[in-house]
Every structure is written in C-alpha cells, then in structure tokens.
Automatic annotation (TrEMBL):
Gene this protein is translated from: metC
Modification N6-(pyridoxal phosphate)lysine occurs at: 206
GO terms assigned for molecular function: cysteine-S-conjugate beta-lyase activity; pyridoxal phosphate binding
Key words of the record: Lyase, Pyridoxal phosphate
Lyase keyword on record: yes
InterPro entries referenced in this protein's UniProt entry, alphabetically: Cys/Met-Metab_PyrdxlP-dep_enz, Cys_b_lyase_bac, Cys_met_metab_PP, PyrdxlP-dep_Trfase, PyrdxlP-dep_Trfase_major, PyrdxlP-dep_Trfase_small
Name recorded for this polypeptide: Cystathionine beta-lyase
Single GO biological process annotation from the record: transsulfuration
Pfam families (UniProt xref): Cys_Met_Meta_PP
Record's catalysed reaction(s): an S-substituted L-cysteine + H2O = a thiol + pyruvate + NH4(+); L,L-cystathionine + H2O = L-homocysteine + pyruvate + NH4(+)
Protein species of origin: Candidatus Dactylopiibacterium carminicum
Membership in a protein family: Belongs to the trans-sulfuration enzymes family.
Length: 397
C-alpha cells in the first residue's frame, strides 16, 4: 500500500476549520433541518433532492463518510446503507427491472443469493448464476436483456479470484453494468474502478468498522452507473444511523494498520495450515500454490485476514474436537473485527459450478491477537482433530 493511501485515510472526510477546530466532524443527528429563509429553502431543492433539506437525505457526518469511501474506492459517488446486505440488495433493485437478466457469481455471499432467488425472481428478473472462474468466456452468457453482472472476488467462503478486467470488457461490450462486492479486500487492497467495475459494494460492517460493534454497507458508483443509481437508491428510504456512520469514520483512520496486521497473521496461519496432515487444502489467494494467486498478484494490493481451509473429515466428533480445542478463535458469523474467528461451513452452495473438495470447509478470520499464539492455538486444535481422525479410521478398519 502506498504512503499516499495511508495519508488519505487520515485526512479524508475531515474539516476542522468548519467545526471550531475539532479534529473529527461532529455527529449530526436529526430529522428536520431548518432553513433561514424562503429563498434558502427553495435553493436547497436545487442541491440534490426535490423536497429540500431533510435528515433522510444525509447529514454532514454521513456525507463525510460517503465522500471518504468514494475517494478510497476510486469511484464518483457513494451512498451508505444500514447493512452490507442492504447495499447488495438495493444495488440489484436499483439496476434491475422486470424482464431483465442478471448474471451472479456462483460464490456470491449467501444472503445475496437468497435475495436474488426469493425476491428478484418474484419480480420478473431472470436470475442466472455462473462459474466464478469463467473469465472472458462470460461473453457466451450475456444476452440483450442482461443489465447487470454481479461479482464477488475473492468469494468470502471459497476465495476464488475472478478475472475482473476480462469480465468487465465482455460486460461493457454488451452494454451491461458490472458490480462487485469488494468487502474482502476493503477499499484499500482492491481498486475496483481501475479494473473495470461500475459499482463497488462494501460490507462496511467488516474491515471499515473493524470492531464488530455495528452494521453498515456502502454502494459506490462511477459516473455512468451513478446516472441511474444516484436517482434510484434514495427512493428506498433506507438510512444509516448517524452513530454507526460515526463509528465507521473512526474505523477508517486505522484501517491501514489493522489490515496489514490481519494480512500478516492470516498469511502466517494459512501457510502453516498447508503443511498439516488434517488439512486437505488451504484456500488463500496470497499463497503461491493457490489457483487464484496469479490474478490476485496482478490485481490486488494486499490480502485481508479472511481465508478458509478444508479439514480432512466430515465427522461431527472430529469437528467438535477441533472447535473445542480452540482458545483464541470464536465460533461466529461475520469477520473484519479485531478478534479471530473460525466458522464451520461444511459445503458451500453451488448451482453453476462443482464444489471440488472432499471434507469440511472451515473459514478462518485472523484477528489482531499475537500471531504466534494464534498459530499455536490453531495447530494444537488441528493436532487434536488429527488424532481423532486417526483413531476413528483405525477403529473402522
Ligand atoms: C458480511 C457480508 C455482507 C453483508 O454485510 P452485513 O453488514 O452483514 O449485512 C455482504 N457481502 C459479503 C462478502 C459479506 O461478507
């Protein structure tokens, strides 16, 4: 990561001169915003919304955060949403209408898939999934009705890396829009707009907030995508709470140092796991032998602390043994907070591509604890699992 990006994280979204010298912008709460005069009330209608000033159209706190994210992602404009899922669903709703076709990557975040299957299909959108490794040959799936292609790279359970520039070229040649869920890398380690995306989504709940204490999402667009979405996204009336946005602005200031430590702890864990006899496969694009490594190296500026591995067993007793031995990894959903997590996934849902691994997929979030203690904890738990696997296989023989 370049020095200038670290400096931007510190300076973006701040204006001490406007707020009596205070380093941080104040937390604005409220609904009604009073105008000084009839003239200024009418003038407010010219600056973005037809109804005049109101809390739902954003406060200085919210605008500071949206400008910061738009700048870090390298996009034109951003809108904040109350959760990452809400950022995904409103992007889909904002672009798609009845009769449209959408292509969604087969490794997409599960609740985004549930929304597409449960809501978009009901509204007359033709939903189709595709193999995340398709690359340029996605062209063969594009139709005149394809309005949007939705990517997630790497997938947040299975870590396949998409060839975003190749996909973008095909998508743009067909006159469609390309959206990407960019939560894994955060806006620091992947610059979606330089790789051809039109829309970038962050589950800000993860690394941006960084402390597992709130939910937020963002949708950032280039100018072309904002022409349509900038008008439609506010129609839903979805607003994020000012306290949560304030926490997100605060989280941004340390995103660079946190992410580099998550990266270091994650790579150390993933590397060591690869040598353990109870592990069939490690899924982490920063590892040299990972199938996504070349694309990751070409397109990303770093890795976050989230990866997965396949344990050589599907036995509940072995899993109980493994999870029961962990001391520093909590069992829980989400990631991006300061604490380490391990999640039993099993087999991810796939409809357009085969899931190639035998065993149990376990997702790991490397937190900010001491790296060697994390490693010892994880290897110890794998040793317990390994001993149990050996015993069970011997007993069965
Ligand atoms: C967590 C997550 C989301 C949803 O974010 P929430 O704030 O939990 O709604 C979306 N996409 C990805 C890749 C995620 O990991």
């Amino acid at each position: 990561m370049s020095h200038s990006q670290d400096t931007l994280l510190i300076q973006t979204g701040r204006n001490p001169a406007a707020y009596a010298g205070y380093v941080n912008p104040p937390l604005f709460r409220g609904s009604t915003i009073l105008a000084e005069s009839y003239e200024s009330w009418e003038a407010a209608k010219q600056t973005g919304n037809p109804y005049g000033n109101y809390g739902r159209f954003g406060s200085p706190t919210i605008r500071a955060f949206e400008e910061a994210i738009a700048g870090l992602e390298g996009g034109y404009r951003c809108q904040v949403f109350p959760s990452g899922l809400s950022a995904c669903t409103h992007t889909l709703m904002g672009v798609l209408g009845s009769g449209d076709h959408v292509l969604i990557t087969d490794n997409v975040y599960g609740p985004t898939r549930s929304f597409a299957d449960g809501m978009l299909s009901r509204l007359g959108v033709d939903v189709e999934y595709f193999d995340p490794l398709l690359g340029a040959s996605i062209a063969s799936l594009l139709r005149p009705q394809t309005r949007l292609v939705f990517l997630e790279s790497p997938g947040s359970l299975s870590f396949e890396v998409c060839d975003v520039p190749a996909i973008a070229q095909a998508v743009h040649a067909a006159g469609s829009l390309l959206a990407i869920d960019n939560s894994w890398a955060s806006p620091l380690f992947f610059k979606p707009f330089t790789r051809g995306a039109d829309i970038s989504i962050q589950a800000a709940t993860k690394y941006i907030l960084g402390h597992s204490d709130a939910l937020l999402g963002t949708v950032t667009c280039n100018e072309h995508a904002w022409e349509a979405l900038g008008k439609r996204l506010p129609l839903f009336g979805e607003t994020a709470g000012p306290e949560d946005v304030n926490l997100a602005l605060r989280g941004l200031r340390t995103l660079g140092v946190r992410l580099r430590q998550h990266q270091e702890n994650g790579i150390a864990l993933a590397t060591a796991l690869g040598d353990h006899p109870a592990v069939v496969r490690v899924l982490h694009p920063a590892l040299q032998n990972d199938p996504g490594h070349a694309l990751w190296k070409r397109d990303f500026l770093g890795a976050s602390g989230l990866f997965a591995f396949v344990l050589d067993s599907e036995s509940p007793q072995v899993l109980s043994c493994f999870f029961g031995a962990l001391r520093h990894f909590g069992i829980g959903l989400s990631w991006g907070g300061f604490e380490s997590l391990a999640l039993p996934v099993g087999r991810p849902k796939r409809t357009a591509s085969a899931w190639p691994h035998q065993g149990t997929l376990i997702r790991v979030h490397a937190g900010l604890e001491d790296g060697e203690e994390l490693l010892a904890d994880m290897l110890g738990a794998l040793d317990s699992a390994s001993a149990r696997i050996t015993r069970d296989r011997r007993d069965a023989a």
